[in-house]
Design brief:
Strand content: 15-25%
Helix content: 25-40%
Structural class: alpha+beta
Number of strands: 9
Order of helices and strands: EHHHEHEEEEEEE
Number of helices: 4
Radius of gyration: 22 Å
Length: 207
């Protein structure tokens, strides 16, 4: 993008600062979208299977709304995951994050914050999942599907990598002799990939 000489002279609205800042924020937003595209994509991962599938044992057999029952099934499935080639003892992977779209953010927050079980009619029934997971709600996720994710220190999930340590967008500029102004460009060399399915779980939710 570029700014003309007139823009620099008449910069009453701080456009010189605002435009590069918006492009920088857009670069960060692009990375965010790439992560959720990887999470929701039906493309095969490193083992030529979809990230969430029956063979990986990380996909609910039937979609269900968030509740103590569906959450307990999801947590148990993650804990039962095994190592390479599904051999050996259970890995006991404990999820740390509950990820969902903003359409069910309030429902998810209620489940994770209530002292009593929102699913039970009896308010005296304790909510065993109160404050056990960190809620991540993002508008990049559409619909009512929800996910569990482990801490990356416990199990690989989806990784964002940066070329040669460039972990922030790079803004460059030079004089534009063709129209008496200044040219800018922003670039951000990043990659996003699913490293392991065992630290992730998906429930498609209900329509």
């Amino acid at each position: 993008f570029g700014l003309t000489f007139e823009s620099f002279i008449n910069d009453d609205l701080d456009v010189i600062t605002k435009i590069p800042l918006r492009y920088t924020r857009g670069a960060y937003q692009t990375v965010n979208e790439l992560v959720y595209e990887t999470l929701t994509s039906s493309n095969n991962i490193y083992d030529n299977k979809a990230l969430f599938c029956e063979q990986h044992k990380n996909l609910a057999t039937k979609g269900g709304a968030l509740s103590t029952d569906t959450l307990s099934i999801a947590i148990a499935a993650m804990k039962k995951q095994k190592g390479t080639a599904s051999k050996g003892p259970a890995l006991n992977i404990t999820p740390q994050f509950l990820i969902c779209g903003v359409d069910i953010e309030a429902q998810a927050a209620q489940l994770l914050k209530s002292t009593s079980d929102p699913q039970a009619n009896n308010s005296g029934v304790a909510n065993i999942y109160q404050n056990t997971l960190t809620l991540v709600a993002d508008a990049a996720l559409e619909g009512k599907a929800w996910y569990l994710a482990a801490n990356s220190l416990d199990c690989d999930t989806i990784e964002v990598t940066y070329l040669n340590g460039y972990d922030t967008p790079i803004l460059e500029s030079k004089d534009d002799f063709e129209r008496l102004g200044r040219k800018y460009r922003i670039w951000y060399p990043v990659g996003v990939a699913a490293l392991d399915y065992r630290g992730l779980y998906k429930n498609p939710g209900v329509a």
